[in-house]
Amino acid sequence: MSVNAVKEDEQLTQVAQRVTLFRLLRYLLGYKKQIAAVLVMMGISIGIILANPLLIERAIDVYIAKKDAHGLVRLGIFAVCLNVLLILLIKARMYLMAKISNQVLLVIRQELYTHIQTLGFSFFNSRPTGKILARVIGDVNSLKDVLTNCVTTLIPEFLTICAVVGIMLAKDWRLALAALLSIPLMIVGVWTVQSRAHIRWQIYRKKGSNMNAFVHEDLSGMRVVQSFCAQEQTQKTFRQLLKEHGEAFVNACRLADAFGPIVDFCWGLSTLLLYFVGVNRILDGRSSIGVLIAFGSYISMFWHPVLNLSNFYNQLITNLAGAERIFEIIDTPADIVNQENAVSLPGISGEVTFSHVDFSYEDGIPVLKDVSFQVKPGERIALVGPTGAGKTTIINLIARFFDVKGGGVLIDGRDVREITLESLRSRLGIMTQENFLFSGTVKENIRYGKLDASDEEIIAAAKAVHAHEFIMEMEKGYDTVLKERGAGLSVGQKQLLAFARTLVSKPAILILDEATSSIDTRTELLVQAGIETLLKDRTSFVVAHRLSTIRSADRIFVIDDCKIKEMGSHFELMEKKGAYYQLYMAQFSQIQ
Ligand SMILES: Nc1ncnc2c1ncn2[C@@H]1O[C@H](COP(=O)(O)OP(=O)(O)OP(=O)(O)O)[C@@H](O)[C@H]1O
Ligand SMILES: [Mg+2]
Known about the structure:
The protein is of the alpha/beta class and about 600 residues long.
């Protein structure tokens, strides 16, 4: 990950908004009955809202004109009942819709999370964690309004507009035309604004994502930041990101805020035209006061939804930018997946073969070239070589974190691509350069290696790798809650816990990518003993920095220049006086 990956904008994607919207709305199909109930309630509500002006027209033109007080009261009571029903329907509809959209959000978030877990290293290498977090948390939240409002704003407001236009045309088409003459003007105005607003909202989201990623990285690396007294520098960067985020928001808002005034202007124009034409028609005796007042209500019933829709549209394009970002992740294909005909290998004996393996992370920069070797079950291999030579890479290929570019990696004579990932990895015990501990108790962390391990198994594993002693010295023994990432434990202690975690899983093949970090001598002895226990009776690959581990290996592979330069036991290689001898003299002779 380059340093700038945090601050750089992710690439702008141009996906048709309609496609994204329909894809999002497809999630609602799972709730057909509830949506139908919402739509029925909405239909009745719209009916009541539309009937109101007709009731007023009737009150004026019939009851008031004929001075029929009883009729007027009856009409009034009827109108009140109808409108109480309207309020109840709106409340029920809102509740139901909130429930549905919450459910959909849950499904989307789960889908996103599950998919992210299948994605390979290359995905995580190319994205800062903070940016992934921004999508899983922030972007998903922003979809709630889209989902709710699509059903509760888009559909009813659209229906209302159609119904109002229909009623107005039926009652008096001349008045209707006068009232609606400014629509084309509005369409042109809104269209011009929206096309630009979408891009600006996308930029705003990306700036938010940058800020998120920066804060996440800064918090994770706080110790480094503080030890290098880099707070001022990071604050400056943060201020810059904040500023960019704020400016992007203002930029988007400036444009988006033009929606309202455009609609307001057209609304005013319609009202003016309506009264101009209406009054003339009343004077000519071709229309009544009741009709004009009803039209006055209808005109606001028309423009109000238009205003709501334009606001909704505004919100929609903001939030669809979030949906696009979510679908982009969901659509990222997992690069390492089970092949269709992959088999489960329950009893792996632990034979590992590399057959003419070629590999590179980036095209054109080979890391391994035509590497071949065969390791018998139970054999102990030490991988040595200069930094960046490809030791971790060999391990990554055995565990199939990456696929080879040429040749094949075989376990028990089977290509790893023909074995299901679950059965492959469950038989591998992998300890990487960073022993990641989760927040939870010591026991839970060890149990992570085998979820159904009993307490006895856990304690036996801890004893075997000599972790038991220091665990018992902790406040609550195995039930001590570890802080995030095992803060409060020494490097050696973390390593011992990782050993125990690996040992409970009883792997057939053990992979240990040792960190070069030095640890105190007492723990060092424990760690060495722990490693011995782990390596016993299983195939093992150890990227070793300890002379004792290297010496005790059955064979040592010296990796350099994209290949295995030398292969053999410590004594054979020392006698050969080749690359291993050089490395040994340079690195280990002093500490013998
Ligand atoms: N994810 C990656 N993307 C691109 N290049 C990578 C990636 N991981 C490693 N490399 C490159 O591949 C080469 C081999 O790296 P590898 O991690 O296997 O070295 P190593 O022998 O384990 O080194 P060390 O002793 O420092 O752990 C290096 O040149 C490294 O820069
Ligand atoms: Mg390495």
